[in-house]
Amino acid sequence: MRKRNLLKLILVGMILFNLPNNSLINAAILKGTFYIDAVNGNDIRTGKSEADAWKSFSNINKSVLSAGTKILLQRGSVWNKRLEIRGSGTVNNWISVGSYGNAVVRPKISLKNNRDDIAILICDLDKTTGEAKAQPISYIEIKDLEIENTRLGIYYRSVMNTSNIGFRVSNVIFNNINCDEVMIPCNAGTDKHLKNRQISLQLKVPKGNLQTVCENFNGGINEFIFPAAIFVGGKTLDRQLVNGSHSTVLSEFEVTNCQFNEAIAGVMSFFYWPFRQNDGANAWRQIVSKVRITNCTATGAVNGALAFDGVNGGAIPDSNGVMRPDKDGWGLIENLAVTRGASLPGRTWPNGTTGVIFSSTQNFLIDKCEFSGILNQGNPDGCGFDFETNNHQVTLQNSKFFNNDGHAILLMNGGAVGGNSDITIQNNLFSNNLKSSDSEFDLLFSLDWDGNKNVKVRNNISFLRPFNKEDKPIGFVNPDRKYITATNNEIYYLDEKAPLQTIHFLGIPYSFNANKK
């Protein structure tokens, strides 16, 4: 008997030895509703009820989630580790991360603002079996949480070139989204060339403790640099030209009812990649498509409460060329209030600061928003809104631009990837911008030969400072730009000794001591 049992053990051992390594790994596939309680939970339980809640994210992080799976975090609990989401929902059965319980305080993920900090990682690279494979990440929702003290709040990461539909973030509060380990070196000293060298270095180093297809580390190279509350990015794409190869990573992306408090950036996509080495015109404007941002607030903005690169919102022009959301409401940015930039030392950017920046982005209506109080700390810009390059069919209307260090709106030169075209700026209210700038125009638009076309500026009201910081007179918009059509703009100059002027904007009265031009 002993010999027979010994032979059986030897035979089993030989079979196991010759199996592929990944067959020895028991990768979990989770389906259903799972509860996590940082205080009273225990990871050896089932996680399938409040009484049997897990304690940490460990069981989630090593699993793939099936469609319809819900991960519920106990209100009042705090976790200091990353949550990782792998898996794909369906249009009727989303994967959801949310909250449960009666505590007033939301469930919170709080990290340390370190270089590698990411609070929630959603990734299309699945190595839970020990073998790298593509895992779609469609129909995923994050809601009712608080995320603080991290470099990236939520990172929606594509490294396997999957095409996904449906990513929604709602009712999430983000606090102190920053990374001094990165921001302070990039702003150190007075030599701009050294600062840009440091920026390049920070971009190229591995970061985030992220996997690659071949390794379980060394990810993050050229993927991101700015701290951001929500970042859609990755690194699977090469030169994305309209007439060349291209792909859409994510369609139907929505952010609603979120707060970005002291966030270097709020919602950001694909910055620095894949366009950073592009030498062709008209880069692909649809790495992300069908986007809606509504009812959000932001403070502490440096690199943009919105920073979009390669995004097609999905709005459609009406007969007058004004953009309108499509029949499903895509292409709308509404009720976004950016009310203050960052003032702490090191929380700025040597190449310029902004409330919003668009690059290679198209088909948006921006309505009933505010872009105010952006600081530059002696660096360029400090503007409310920056049309950087290669943007097309954007309408910006019914919005406020108050007390920015720089311009209300900046429209830059085209660079290698093309100029801006079919931009409409209408029915907005501007006041007291260019507080710390040598610019001579509140709306600074680049030269005629930079490739910009068909920019309309109409029916706006502007209360201008009389002089910039070099005591040069300030105008509203440069009248010499041939691609601009400026009509019916009402201009005032602020003067403490002037009579009080009261105007009504979106039903609210505003009063300024000013003289009408």
Write down the overall geometry. elongated
Largest beta sheet, briefly? Answer: 29 strands, parallel
| Strand runs, count | 41
The secondary-structure class comes to mainly beta
Mean pLDDT: 91
Fold and architecture overview:
This protein has 4 helices and 41 strands. The chain has a domain at about 30-175. Helix 3 (about 180-185) packs antiparallel against helix 4. It has about 525 residues and is mainly beta.
Short description:
This protein has 517 residues and is mainly beta. The chain contains four helices and 41 strands. A hairpin with a 6-residue loop joins strand 10 and strand 11 (133-134).
Summary keywords:
single chain, 8% helix, 29-stranded parallel beta sheet, elongated, 517 residues, 6-stranded mixed beta sheet
Structural topology:
Layout: H1 2-18, E1 28-30, E2 33-36, H2 58-61, E3 63-65, E4 70-74, E5 78-79, E6 83-85, E7 95-100, E8 108-110, E9 118-123, E10 125-126, E11 133-134, E12 140-143, E13 146-150, E14 152-158, E15 164-170, E16 173-177, H3 180-187, H4 192-204, E17 228-234, E18 250-256, E19 259-263, E20 267-269, E21 288-301, E22 303-312, E23 316-317, E24 323-324, E25 332-341, E26 353-367, E27 370-371, E28 381-389, E29 392-397, E30 400-402, E31 409-411, E32 421-426, E33 429-431, E34 441-445, E35 453-458, E36 461-464, E37 475-477, E38 484-487, E39 490-494, E40 500-505, E41 508-516
Helix pairs in contact: 3-4
